[in-house]
Amino acid sequence: MREIQMVDLKTQYLNIRSEIDNSIKSVLDSTAFIRGPEVKQFEKELQHYLNVNHVISCANGTDALQIAMMALGLKSGDEVITTNFTFIATVEVVALLGLKLVIVDPEPGSFNISVEEIRKAITPRTKAIVPVHLFGQCADMESIMKLAGQNNIFVIEDAAQSTGTDYIFSDGSVKKAGTIGHIGTTSFFPSKNLGCYGDGGALYTNNDELAAKLRSIANHGMKIKYHHDDIGVNSRLDTLQAAILRVKLKYLDMYNTARISAADSYDKALSVCPEIIVPERVTYSSHIFHQYTLKIKNGKRDNLKRFLEEKKIPSMIYYPSPLHAQPAYSYLGYRETDFPVTTALCREVLSLPMHTEIDQEQLDYIILNVLKYFE
After folding, report:
1. pLDDT (tens digit per residue) in 107-130
2. What SS3 class is residue 104?
């Protein structure tokens, strides 16, 4: 059996090695390392895949969030609502821009932001909501967009963990994660479902005027070279990464299908154990399992993690501490009791190995040992 890894990027690379190597070589031969033709081609191809009017690439997913908030004209003191159960990038740009961060609990089953908690947090100063499509499954975007529309609030989707996820509206229509709000953002960090071999990110929008603003801000505030209409940043996807992403985009649906298949195997075997809660799959979204995250009951999570380590099975805790408990955000003045769902999740969640190259022998070994712990 091959060594089990949380994410097996090497085996994935070896399976598409000739295509990747050729794509890199073509960029090296061209020497168009910054804003080369591969960048525009990738943007067009991702735009087509997502069925969205505009894709604007940038340097990373954190920049994408910052550029989105800058483009929407959010000002110091404006309130931005997001979830307490997410990676720090979602909130740090809010703080960096001098905006007021308002965090709320997620749903305990889907791990995604609670619409009811958003509703309770809205004030006249609320200017944006940032739902995070966590672990590969969409937040309840139809309800969020309705709530935002009623209150004249922008919606910025953090879709970094959900490239390729389908959102299913109540009328049966379908849109890809990141294409529903006013702006969608993503990361191409190597471990993502669509990942490059370094840093990268992108923004999505269907609004032509907003797209021009986003593209300008990402390029030093320029629409025309050396003419600066906006205060901008320097955030670009380099040509080598775009060339790699063009190859991997062709395989994205296949990769996501492989993840779903692995999750099905986990679900079938692990759902029989009463102390394990397998990931909820909501009716309004597909789930592409960027992570496969269990809830382990009765305080046994940490001991299970140690047991799996002894069996050479990696696992991860996403996320071990709520955002409001991080020292950098103590200024917000929240108490632990303000977020009972987040606090409980941080004590219970455990993610098992999940990637495109995981095979049945590895899955069987992981499942065997997880269940063995609970015997």
Report:
1. 999 999 999 999 999 999 999 999
2. strand
